[in-house]
Design a protein that fits this description.
alpha+beta, Uridine Diphospho-n-acetylenolpyruvylglucosamine Reductase, domain 3, 2 domains, three-stranded parallel β-sheet, binds flavin-adenine dinucleotide
Amino acid sequence: MKQVLLPRSLSDLWAMMRDLPDAAVYAGGTDLLVKIRSGSIPSKDLICLERIQELKGVADNGDRIVILAATPLSQLLREPEITGHVPVLVKAVACLGSPLIRNMGTIGGNICTASPAGDTLAPLYVLNARVELASEAGVRSLPISRFILGPGQTALETGEILSAIHIEKPHPQAIQHFEKIGRRNALACSLASMAAVLRLSDDGIVLAASLAWGSVGPTVITCPEAAAGLIGRPLSLDRLTEAAAMVRKAVSPITDIRATAEYRRAVAGNLLLRLCDLKMGNT
Ligand SMILES: Cc1cc2nc3c(=O)[nH]c(=O)nc-3n(C[C@H](O)[C@H](O)[C@H](O)COP(=O)(O)OP(=O)(O)OC[C@H]3O[C@@H](n4cnc5c(N)ncnc54)[C@H](O)[C@@H]3O)c2cc1C
């Protein structure tokens, strides 16, 4: 008979993980329990992180924001540290699933699912997020780009959980943008998405650009050459059109029931052109 264990502290969690090394850890269950119920992964003993308060909340650490992994997505939409400093993440969370999914689902679950369509991933890439991985033996930290290894694959090792996400606060004047294309406005899996953090000088020259695309490759695609092509020049439709051509070459989308690879490739470039309208303030 399979069991669901509900630890209330990290020390309880480590003891349970030691006793049941094959158990799956989960948080909101909006990915894992759906897969178990549909039979796409086998039923197993489960350890739920939901009652561990040490894994919930958001903290302002000066130049960084720390989000604890089992924080529900809906809470991120209410936290002043998040709404004030990282609107790019707020925009992504606001269009993830439905209110019910956002109340149950957590940011840690979205990251550990490592879906190419995971909506928080592209924003976390452009925010240079680092993930903190904890086990009974201690804590280690990795850039998110080294944590996500492929669809459904992460660098988590046996006995580890994702405990926190550390984000550098962007420059206060940075333009932050996220857009997701789906087949409808709510409860839609992304066909393509783009996150951007840009800094412009007072006369409109791009000083820094961090760009990332979701749903157009096995993991998030960053296309550094497109970002480099924008830096040091005015943000104009001509420059963005050149960069968009690089993006269309860099992405490797698939055709599935939602969209063709050609459509996703075209949209990935088109999403970049939107930045031309966003030169002032957060959008
Ligand atoms: C109807 C519906 C609509 C959805 N819409 C969207 C959408 O628009 N965009 C989107 O991105 N996603 C969507 N999802 C997917 C899902 O809701 C999100 O990925 C959510 O953030 C998952 O969080 P969770 O806490 O529920 O994950 P869980 O189901 O609890 O866990 C998911 C995976 O992560 C692991 N895990 C969870 N937390 C940790 C941790 N702290 N440490 C180690 N491993 C951990 C689990 O073992 C499991 O493998 C949708 C799901 C449903 C059912």
